[in-house]
């Protein structure tokens, strides 16, 4: 069987980080999960991760699509181990009655322990959480005690960009190129894997998964 290759685009990034890599899913077989990724979920249900064609993809022809239903579907890139760096992805909320969410995860130990930064088109907000032993908890924004992320227009059926930069215990959250807030937390301090995330009945597409770190 021919081994499918990831399409990688290298660009120069900030001093101290490795060269950034971008996975655009275009050389991968459609109708199946991406090779080299663990397509799974946090909690109950049945996540369905597959590479599919989409003419609206930022890099045509393929995207990574989640079309099942589970507590928190996650898809983790197996060969990654980042302590400090960044993760960025383009995502499109397609449909979902309960949720239309997409997110990035980092410092993941497994499918039940990771940080998550997500946007939700049904709620029009963005929130940064930690998930510990399968339980998700929102984290306080630096300079504000309590609350639940921030309100932000997240249009359904359109491509958006999520980015999180993480160094030590400080995380910077960006949405569509705009720096929204910072969070500080010490739950997961060592290196971990990175990936993408959805929630409940969200049908969500992802493209141009970009990362760098050390």
Task: Give an overview of the whole structure.
The chain has 214 residues and is mostly beta strands. 0% of the residues lie in helices and 55% in strands. Strands 1, 3, 4, 6, 12, 13, 14 and 16 form an eight-stranded antiparallel sheet that branches. Strands 2, 5, 7, 8, 9, 10, 11 and 15 form an eight-stranded antiparallel sheet that branches. The radius of gyration is 16 Å and the shape is globular.
Mean pLDDT comes to: 93
Q: Quickly give the structural class.
A: mainly beta
Strand percent estimate:
over 45%
Point out poorly predicted stretches: 1-15
Please compute the radius of gyration using only Cα atoms. Answer: 16 Å
Rough shape? globular
Q: Considering the protein shown, what is the CATH homologous superfamily?
A: Exo-inulinase, domain 1
Number of helices: 0
Could you tell me how far the N terminus lies from the C terminus, measured between alpha carbons in angstroms? 33 Å
CATH topology: Jelly Rolls
Helix coverage percent? under 10%
Compressed to H and E, one letter per element, the order equals EEEEEEEEEEEEEEEE
Number of domains: 1
What about the largest sheet?
8 strands, antiparallel
The total of beta strands comes to: 16
- By CATH reckoning, the class would read Mainly Beta
